[in-house]
Amino acid sequence: MTFRCRNRVRRTFTVLLTGATIAALTPSVAGNAVAADQTPRITASDYAPQLAAESTSRAGNVMYSGPKTINGRKAIYLTFDDGPVTRGTPEVLAALQANRVTATFFVVGGLANSRAGTNIVKRLHGAGMPIAMHSWSHPVMSGWSTAAVQRDLTVTTKAIRRATGEIPTCFRPPYGAYGRGVTNAAAARNVSVVMWDVDPRDWTDPGPSALASRVISKLHPGAIILMHDGAGHGRQAAAALPRIVRAARAKGYVFGTLCPMRRPTRSTSAIATSAAGGGS
Ligand SMILES: [Zn+2]
Q1: How many percent of the chain have pLDDT more than 70?
Q2: How many whole angstroms from 228 Cα to the centroid of ligand 1?
Q3: What value does the mean pLDDT of the chain take?
Q4: Which residues pair with 63 in a beta bridge?
Q5: CA angle in degrees (0–180, nearest 5) for 178-182-184
Q6: CB under 8 Å to 121, separation ≥6 — which residues?
Q7: Is 82 a catalytic residue?
Q8: Quick check: is 113 in a domain?
Q9: Which one is catalytic: 81, 82, 199, 202?
Q10: Which end of the chain is less enclosed by CB atoms within 10 A, N or C?
């Protein structure tokens, strides 16, 4: 198992999550095990083709790579973790838009739930970037029970839905650490566990040029590339993006997104209502 975050990153999180936001980070909602089993909707995008529908049906499975091709063209998938943050996420979004590519954002629910975080997630979503879950407060969840993971996914889903009006369909456990609780809870909610197979270790802060080289040297069809907009690494990622995009396009790749979000239905509305009423 690869753990991409080390102590320094954890410390960064501690800093990010202190102060006024800390109260918002304690899930206060009773667990709700009702599965949201609606068919995933393919979100339209101006920039890149979307993940093929058949791949999104692997709910409950752990996905390390995406579809190798989209419409017959070699595809890769940028993913960004640990946001939303005011210093990092807007820079990454601007770089993505300037280079006309899309990415999938795995957000921390407690950050997305703040006023600033909600606005950033709204902007990402409005720009065609799917929003997925990266837990409520970035704990190690490998030893968690199914019920505990369910509670976390419930409150994280609620924060994302509040910002986007839609339901996330993927979960990436912090540090890539997962056990049966994670896979069972994800399966019960019809949520895919999405990992990665290209890790440029951007959290070691190699600088934009070295970061771009690390990504470019590992590109292959279906690659899910792990990068960070949060935890202090967003500016570096944004600065590396133009070179990554240029090199990938020169090799014939298109940029796809994972985790198309679902529109809420009457049954998922019931989940949100029940969660809202269950707070203590
Ligand atoms: Zn993370």
Answers
A1: 73
A2: 8
A3: 80
A4: 194
A5: 135
A6: 84, 105, 107, 112, 131, 160, 163, 164
A7: no
A8: yes
A9: 81
A10: C
Query: Is position 125 annotated as part of the catalytic site?
Result: no
Instruction: Specify if 201 maps to a domain.
Output: yes
CA of 184 to the centre of ligand 1 (A): 20
pLDDT digits (tens, 9 = 90+) for 46-93: 222 233 333 333 444 799 999 999 999 999 999 999 999 999 999 999
Q: How far is CA 85 from the centre of its chain?
A: 13
Annotated catalytic residue, options 202, 228, 229, 233: 228
266 C-alpha vs ligand 1 centroid, how far in Å?
Answer: 32
Ligand 1 centroid–CA 82 distance in Å is 5
Look up the CATH number of the domain holding residue 137. 3.20.20.370
Question: Domain range for residue 124?
Answer: 39-277
Cβ contacts of 111 within 8 Å, gap of 6 or more: 16, 17, 21, 83, 84, 85, 117, 230
Distance 71 CA to ligand 1 centre (A): 31
pLDDT-wise least confident of 19-23, 79-83, 253-257? 19-23
Q: Output the CA 7–ligand 1 centroid distance in Å.
A: 12
- Residue 29 belongs to some domain of the structure: no
For residue 174, being part of any structural domain is answered with yes
Write the CB contacts of 257 (distance below 8 Å, at least 6 apart in sequence).
43, 45, 48, 50, 51, 77, 102, 103, 104, 128, 129, 130
Nearest 5°: the CA angle 167, 258, 268 is 15
